[in-house]
Write a structure and sequence with these properties.
Layout: H1 2-19, E1 28-32, E2 39-44, H2 50-55, E3 59-67, E4 72-75, H3 92-101, E5 111-112, H4 120-123, E6 133-134, H5 135-141, H6 144-166, H7 190-201, H8 209-219, E7 220-223, E8 227-238, E9 241-252, E10 255-266, H9 274-288
Parallel strand pairs: 2-4
Antiparallel strand pairs: 1-2, 3-4, 3-10, 5-6, 7-8, 8-9, 9-10
């Protein structure tokens, strides 16, 4: 189901990219979903990209959104939506699920013991994470050392099993060492991120309900009277390019919307705004689409 839907959308995205010189294309109907009988639609909204440049003129990227209620896909760039890149710390979403399934952690309150060393050349100097952390804190602070410790215990064979079963990424985990999600040839597209997040939320991924419920608690990022955002950031480097993500979902009175925002920046133009732009751009796009107020 996952791959069939992806193929149909990919073909439609290619068509939309060729025909959508206007800011917004009409809905494009796909084949009916095998699960619900409902038809998905695809809308390309190129005008959403203005929020990327408004945040920083040296940024490129896109947002991909899926409306669970209507089966509507919305993309600011239908070509970029299928372009693979390293998932960076958004991989902690599936990493946490795998660690829970493998019994390496009990829940979000388990304490991970700081061993007193990390690679600051590779991951920068971050003194706020150099201490014992609960799993929930490690996820929120994106403490790489915690998930590298877990990765050593999981091993590449178990990763290969879960990634294939989940339909997550391109399967290339041959990078030397544990950290194939920040370095190497492993990749995932925004569409794939959204598809995976949707399957997890709907209980269709190969993980227990208990593990998914714990993940949902850990992912909750923002809660107001009008909406909730549950998401994970990611940031790594591919060659001379910053790659930044914000992946997750919103819950409002109108239902659930899954999203994957990904930004690229030539490192010649490094600026402090790159990190905040991941969330700022996403919120601006969600507001324009009237998904959040």
């Amino acid at each position: 189901m996952l791959y069939r839907t992806g193929l149909l959308l990919c073909l439609l995205a290619a068509f939309a990219q060729c025909t959508s010189n206007v800011q917004s294309t009409p809905a494009v109907q796909t084949a009916a979903s095998a699960d619900t009988g409902a038809a998905d639609t695809l809308i390309v909204r190129k005008n959403l990209s203005k929020h990327i440049k408004a945040c920083n003129e040296h940024l490129e990227g896109s947002i991909t959104i899926y409306d669970q209620q209507t089966g509507k896909w919305m993309m600011s760039d239908s070509a970029d939506a299928y372009r693979e890149a390293l998932p960076a710390s958004t991989f902690k979403i599936i990493n946490l699920l795998i660690a829970l399934e493998e019994g390496l952690i009990k829940d979000e309150n388990d304490v991970m013991v700081w061993k007193g060393e990390t690679d600051t050349t590779r991951y920068g100097y971050r003194p706020e994470i150099y201490r014992d952390l609960t799993v929930k804190e490690a996820f929120a602070l994106s403490a790489v050392w915690v998930f590298l410790d877990l990765a050593k215990k999981i091993g590449k064979d178990r990763y290969a099993h879960y990634l294939k079963a989940s339909g997550y990424g391109n399967g290339n985990i041959l990078e030397k060492g544990e950290d194939f999600w920040n370095f190497g040839s492993f990749g995932i597209s925004p569409v794939n991120q959204v598809q995976f997040m949707r399957n997890v939320y709907e209980g269709k991924a190969p993980f227990s309900k208990r593990s998914i419920d714990i993940l949902k608690k850990v992912m909750l990022t923002e809660e107001t009277a009008d909406y909730k955002i549950s998401a994970k950031t990611g940031w790594t480097r591919e060659g001379g390019t910053n790659v930044g993500w914000w992946v997750g979902y919103t819950e409002t009175g109108q239902g659930v919307h899954f999203f994957a925002t990904r930004l690229f920046q030539d490192r010649r133009f490094n600026s402090p705004s790159f990190g905040p732009c991941r969330k700022d751009v996403t919120r601006a796009m969600l507001r324009e689409l009237e998904i959040i107020p």
